[in-house]
Amino acid sequence: MTNGPGLTGSLLVGLSFAKALSYGGGVPLVGVHHLEGHILANALHDSFEAPAVVLIVSGGHTQLIRVDRIGSYHFLGGTRDDAAGEAFDKIGKILGLPFPGGPAIEREALSGNPKAFDFPRGLRYSGECDFSFSGLKTAVRLKVESMGKLTPTIIRDVAASAQESIVEVLTEKTKLAIRHSGVPRLYLAGGVAANGRLREMMQDRLGPEGVTVSWPPVEYCTDNAAMIACAAYHHISAGRRDGLALNTFCRGELSSWA
User: Do 148 and 176 contact (CB within 8 A), yes or no?
Assistant: First the structure.
């Protein structure tokens, strides 16, 4: 089961149930880091080939992780402020779109002009694998406020332009991480991995460089029990168990265990 990171109250409910099930049923108890679950969502429909670089991109996380093998993880870069999914949600709210903002923005962007507005690409030329999306969120808010009434055309164009900014930064930073690591295999993970424009750009820009790009089926991109079960399977197969003293944690980096 997931024991972190996340909201302590929710994690404690799940952990208490898992402990009772383990104690009463005599089944193994394994604590799984939430981000490891997202990574191994890629193993639910096909084999997971390592070494690989994984872009975990969701409402709460934007990170690049090098996976040498399942259980061996190395942090390459992450967001310094907002996660990409959080930026999608907040921009969607600015545009009056329903929550979650990512799918709503993607739908509007299909008929919008991605070059209508030149929104910032945070840290694009920093030479590092870190991200920043707070400046984009502010730029969108200021642009929308300056235009007064939002017409359907403006909403579509802002959505398309903001999405293009987010997706381009994610792609270029991932390309940089691939070059630094020398690993020609990429997996996408997390809710934003369901974004069609992100998948398209990753394939278009990394494919010609010989990088194999993969992602989970849409139903396994957002949080789901199957990805945690898959991660737990690999822990148990390696002989790893946790005792009933297992606790939750609200913050914590993904660490290696293999």
Answer: no
Token pair 């999405």 is found at 163
Each residue's pLDDT tens digit, 50-85 = 999 999 999 999 999 999 999 999 999 999 999 999
Is residue 22 situated within a structural domain?
no
90-96: list long-range contacts, CB under 8 Å, 24+ apart: 90/137, 91/136, 91/137, 91/140, 91/158, 91/159, 91/162, 94/137, 94/140, 94/141, 94/144, 95/144, 95/150, 95/155, 95/158, 95/159, 96/150, 96/155
Q: Is 53 within a domain? A: yes
- Report the percentage of the chain scoring pLDDT > 90: 98
Residue 128 inside a domain? The answer is: yes
Burial of 172 (0-12, 13-18, 19+ CB in 10 A): middle
CB 90 within 8 A of CB 77: no
97: domain CATH number is 3.30.420.40
Structure tokens at 147: 């235009």
CA-wise closest residue to 57 among 78, 31, 36: 78
Residue 39 lies in a domain: no
pLDDT value at residue 148: 87
Tokens of 60: 């709460």
Amino acid at 186: L
Show the domain range for 165: 49-217
